Amino acid sequence: MGAAGALRIFLCSCWLLLCTGLAHAQVTHLVRADVMVTPPSGYQPPLSSFDPASLAGPWREVALPDKFDQGTPERSAGGPLKPGAMATTWYRISLAGVAAAPGPVALHLLRWQAAGQLAVYGDGQLLYRSQGSPAWNHFRHPALVIPLRETAEAPLPKTLLVRLDTFPGAAGAITSLYAGPEREIYARYAGREWLEYQLPFMMSAAFLAVGLFSFGVWLVRRREPIYFLVFVIAVCTVVRRWHIYAGLEQLTISDQWFGWLTYNALNWQIVALQYFARLLHGRDHRWFNRITVGFAGLMTLATLPLSALQPGLVLVKPLLYVVPILLGAVMTVRNMWDGWQSRSYEARLLGGWMVVSLSFGTYDWFKVKYQFNIEGFYLTPYAAMVMFVVITYILFRRYVNAVAETERSKETLEVRLRQREQELAESYEKLREVEKARTLSMERQRMMQDMHDVLGLSLIGALRMVERGRLDEREVAQILSSCIDDLKLAIDSLEPVDADLLLLLATLRFRLGPRLEAAGIRLAWKVETVPALPWLDPRHALHILRILQEAFANIIKHTSATEIAVSTAVTHDGVSVAVEDNGPGFSLEQGLAQGGKGLRNQMRRAEAIGARIEWQPSPGGTRMVLQLPLVQRMLAAPA
C-alpha cells in the first residue's frame, strides 16, 4: 500500500471519527449532477441573479467528483481568443432529495480545483462567488460552506447551479457536495478543515519558531552551521506551503511573485536538506552539492516573473515540479546510502523521512494532475509535519548527547582531578619526607658546627693547657662546667618554643642560674610579656642563647660584678632583651682592638638573625641590648 496510502487511510479515518456523531443527522450526500460546457469567450463576472432556463444545453449526467481534461472539444478554441477569454463549465444539481430540516440549511463543497473562478446559484440567486484571482484559486484548492437557507421560514432552493470559469485548455475538477442542517454541515467542515489546514498550520508555526530559535543559536555559535540550516529549512517549508495557510482572499502580493516564491522555496529547501544530511553522515559529495545549488540558482533566475506571460506559468507550474522531484529522488537515494554507510542513526532517520516525503510529493503531483480522487487529502503538508518532528528530534538528541558528553567530561575531569590530587598528595608527602630529612641533616650539621666551634675548641684549648701544666683543678672544672652548659644550651635550642621568646629566656635562666649562683652573682629577672616572634625556630633560638650566654660568660670572666639584671621591652619595630651588670664597665672599641672573639661572635650571630646588638655604659656598669625584629628581613646564616 505504501506510506502515502497508509497516511491517507489514517486521515480519512480521523475525519470519519469526527463526523461519526453526525450519522443520525439529515445530511444528504450529493453525488450526481448534469454538466454542460460553453465555448471560450470574454469573461463576464457573475450576476446577482441568473435565469437557469437560459442554459438550453445540451446537458449530460456525470458522477461527482468530476474532472475535465485539457483539450476537450468543448473547451478548445475554434480560433483566436480574446484577451481574458475563459471557458465555462456549468453543473446543475438537484436538491429535491435534501430532507427539509427546521432551521438554517447549508451546503458543503469539499474542494474545487481549477485556475479560474467559481460561482454558486440557488434557484437563480447568487449564493457564493470566489474572491481570489484564477491563479490564486489554483493555489488554494479551497473547501466551502455555503448557506442555502438562513432562516426557518425561508424557502429551500430546489436546484443548484455551479458555474466554473477556467482558462481555455486548462483542467479542472469539482468534488461531491453535502447538504443538511447548518450545524451538522459546519461541524463536518470544521473537522476536515482542522485536519487538512489548521493542524499543518500549527505545526508549521512551531517549526518556524524552532527555526528562529536555531538562528539565534547560530548567531552565538557560528562554528555549528547545522542550526543555520534548520532555520533555512523552516523558513523554506513555511513559504513553500504558504497557500495552505492563507485565506480564500487574494494576497496583496501578485500571483506571479507568489508562485515564484513558493516554487523556489522548494528548490532551496532541497539544497538546505542536502547540506543538513551531509553534516549528519559526514560524507561530502561536492559534485552533487554543486548540482543542487546550481539547479536552485538557475531555477530562481529562470522563473522570475519579469514578463506578462501569465497565466502561462500557472498552467505549466506542475511540469516545473518534475525536476525537483527527480532531484529529490536522487538526493534521497544518495543520502540513504550515505546514512547506511556511515552508520549514523540520525542520517538514517532523515533518509527515511526523505523517502516518505518523496512518496507524498509524488502522490500530490499526480493529484494536481487530476490522476487521483481530489476529495482526498494532500499529503505534502503532513510530510512537512513529519520533517519538523524528525529535525526537532535530531536537535533534541544532539542537545541530550551534548549534555551527556558534558557530564562525562565532568566525571572524567573529576576522576583526573582526584588522581592529580592523589599524585600531588603523594608528591607532597615525599617532599615533606625529603624536607624533613634535609632539615634533620641541616640540624645535624648545625649542631656539629656549633659543637666544633664552641664546645670542641674549648675542650681542645683546655686539654692543651692541662698538658702544659698551666691549669689547676679548679680552672679545669670551670672549663668543663662551661662546656656542659654549652652542650645543654645546644640541646635546649632543639626544643620547640612556638615563637615564645619568654619561654626561651626561661630555659636560659634554668641552665645558667646555678652557675651564676656559684660565681656569687645575683640574677635580677625583670622580664615582661612581649609579642610572639613568628620567625623564632630552633636555629634562631640557638643564636639568641649563644649571644646571651656569651654576655653572661664575659661578665663572669672579665668583671667583678655582683648582680646581673635581665629585662625585656617592646620597641616600635620589635622586642629588646637587655643584660646589665654592676661591674666597672669596658670600652667596646678597646675590647675589639684586643681581639675579643666573643664580641665578634655576638655581633655575627645578631646579624645572622636580622637583629642588632649594642653595648651601652651605665652608671654602675655595662648594658648590652639585643634588638629583635617582629618580622625577620634577613636570612640567618648557619650557626
Describe the structure.
This protein is an alpha+beta fold and 639 residues long. The protein folds into three domains: 2-69 and 85-195, Jelly Rolls; 198-408, Up-down Bundle (Rhopdopsin 7-helix transmembrane proteins); 499-629, Histidine kinase-like ATPase, C-terminal domain (Heat Shock Protein 90). Helices cover 54% and strands 17% of the residues. It contains 16 helices and 18 strands. The strands form four sheets. The protein has a six-stranded antiparallel β-sheet. Strand 15 (563-570) and strand 16 (574-581) form a beta hairpin. Helix 1 packs across helix 3, helix 3 (182-220) runs antiparallel to helix 4 (226-240) and helix 10 (345-368) runs antiparallel to helix 11 (380-467). Mean pLDDT is 81; it is low at 20-24, 76-81, 308-312 and 634-639. Residues 1-25 form the signal peptide. Residues 539-632 form the Histidine kinase/HSP90-like ATPase domain.
Adjacency order of strands in the biggest sheet? 3-2-5-11-8-9
Overall shape? rod-shaped
Number of helices: 16
Tell me the domain tally: 3
The proportion of strand residues reads: 15-25%
Average pLDDT number: 81
Which fold does the CATH topology of the largest domain refer to?
Answer: Rhopdopsin 7-helix transmembrane proteins
Q: Uncertain regions: pLDDT < 50 for 5+ in a row?
A: 20-24, 76-81, 308-312, 634-639
CATH class category name of the largest domain = Mainly Alpha
Termini gap: 103 Å
Secondary structural class? alpha+beta
What fraction, in percent, of the residue positions are helical?
Answer: 40-55%
- Multimeric state: single chain
Main beta-sheet strand count, sense and barrel state: 6 strands, antiparallel
GO molecular function: kinase activity
Keywords: Coiled coil, Kinase, Membrane, Signal, Transferase, Transmembrane, Transmembrane helix, Two-component regulatory system
Transmembrane segments: 199-219, 226-245, 257-276, 288-307, 319-337, 349-366, 378-396
Coiled coil: 403-437
